[in-house]
Amino acid sequence: HGKQWYQRRVAITAGGVIVNKKVRGKILAKRINLRIEHINHSKCRDDFLNRVKKNELVKKEAKASGTFVCTKRAPVNPRTSHTVKGKGIVVEEVCPIRYEFIA
């Protein structure tokens, strides 16, 4: 969770970029030059802005109808349990071999 890189300077054909690289538990700032066609904007900000717009619409509709709506993100619940069945396959119980001390 953090910035992987940010733009340092821009020329006509290339841009200077500072990249955070993890080396032996440390994060080092490395300066590299990239051509303009290889630089693109992060999509995480777009997702956030789309979510904000959607939440505003939902809140506006809820206010008009007089109901309460929760716009918080909720974690996905775990999947329900199920049994895997196979045709003609016998279930084999696997258990560890008992340890025997040999002197």
If you had to describe this structure to a student in words, what would you say it looks like?
The chain has 103 residues and is α+β, with helices and mostly antiparallel strands. It contains one helix and three strands, in the order βββα. It has one helix at residues 44-65; strands spanning 5-10, 14-23, 26-35. Strands 1-2-3 form a three-stranded antiparallel beta sheet, with no helix packed on it. A hairpin with a 2-residue loop joins strand 2 (14-23) and strand 3. The longest helix is centred in the middle third of the chain and has 22 residues, at 44-65. The protein is flat, with a radius of gyration of 27 Å. The termini are far apart. The model has no long low-confidence stretch (mean pLDDT 85).
